[in-house]
Amino acid sequence: MIVPLLHQWTKANALFKPPVINQCRTIELKLTKLWHKAVETSLGKGNLARKNEFLHTLDTLFDILTCKCSIQLCSESNCSHSGKRENNSHIDCGCPREKKIPVLELEFIKAQRTKAEGQGSMQMGSIDYSETKKQIANAKKREQIREREQKKKMKSEEAIQREEELCQDVYHFFDIPPINVNATKLSELVDLSLEVLEPPLTTSLTSQELRNLKETPMQVPKWPSHTQSVERCVKMVTEAAGHVYSHERREAGVLNKTLLSSCPSIVNKIIPIRTSPTAKLETLRLSQNK
After folding, report:
1. 199 domain-assigned
2. Is residue 177 part of a domain?
């Protein structure tokens, strides 16, 4: 049932193909719904108004166009182009370009949508071979462009997916900028205009985690400026430095070393005295007599 229907639309214009018209699955659902209404009406279900509405539907166009925008003829809007050009109709359409109704067929579609009792102001005639050939060429060109764009999109998506897989476990590294040792001001210590540097806070994040920050803001932990062990170490070093180093102690230490270096050094040597065994024995006797 769908094949003759599609053939009839394509016969009117070769550009009447998806996505200008509905996909086959959508057309099947529309036909099935219309068939159920026909069965219910034939069985006498529903009131008279519903029956008349269904009969009126049979006389109107089975519209499978994706674009449902209203078409207005030039004669209806008192347009200055009325009768002066091939297309005598206007449409205020906001549909995507690939879903728009061909401009050449606007007047025909308007006539088909507004026809009454199966007859409209315009009817299908014999085939215009030159126009049909041109339409087929345009349809092929559109299809090629669509396939090319689809391939580009798929290729781009594959590249992004491949990059995400490669960068899933890759971390960013923070490059330390060169330090100006000749700087006289703190602002001259690092030249921030040379390159854009990544903040150290994000160096441990993966590429996927950085992308997720667009949706959920980063919760920065409130770290203290120094840990307890560092503060204790600083305190101990400060106390030790106060005992061995200060402005007064430094001056006294320099003077002390200067004076000591200018004084002559005296070397005291102890010369051991050797005694004979006889002298040792005499000393022992004297100590006993006492």
Report:
1. yes
2. yes
Cα distances from 144 to residues 51, 198, 204, in angstroms, run 46, 44, 45
Measuring CA to CA, which residue among 139, 147, 119 is closest to residue 60? 119
Name the packing angle between helices 24-42 and 2-12 (round to 10°): 120
Q: Is the pTM of this model over 0.85?
A: no
What pLDDT, on a 0 to 100 scale, did the predictor assign at position 76?
A: 74
N-term to C-term CA, the chain: 150
Q: Tell me whether residue 115 is in a domain.
A: yes
Cα–Cα distance between 186 and 180 in angstroms, integer? 10
Strands 71-73 and 89-91: antiparallel
- C-beta of residue 91 within 8 angstroms of C-beta of residue 70: yes
CB count in 10 Å sphere of residue 21: 22
Number of H helices, E strands in the chain: 9, 2
Domain total in the chain: 3
In a shared domain, residues 13 and 119 = yes
Residues 130 and 114: beta-carbon distance below 8 Å: no
Span 155-173, average pLDDT: 68
Please tell me the distance from the alpha carbon of residue 208 to that of residue 159, in angstroms, as a whole number: 15
- Reply yes or no on whether the pLDDT at 149 is more than 70: yes
pLDDT digits (tens, 9 = 90+) for 182-225: 888 877 887 777 666 667 677 777 777 877 888 888 877 776 66
252 found inside a domain: no
Residue range of the domain that includes 158:
126-166
- Looking at the fold, whether 82 and 93 belong to one and the same domain comes out as yes
What residue type is assigned to position 262 of the chain? Answer: S
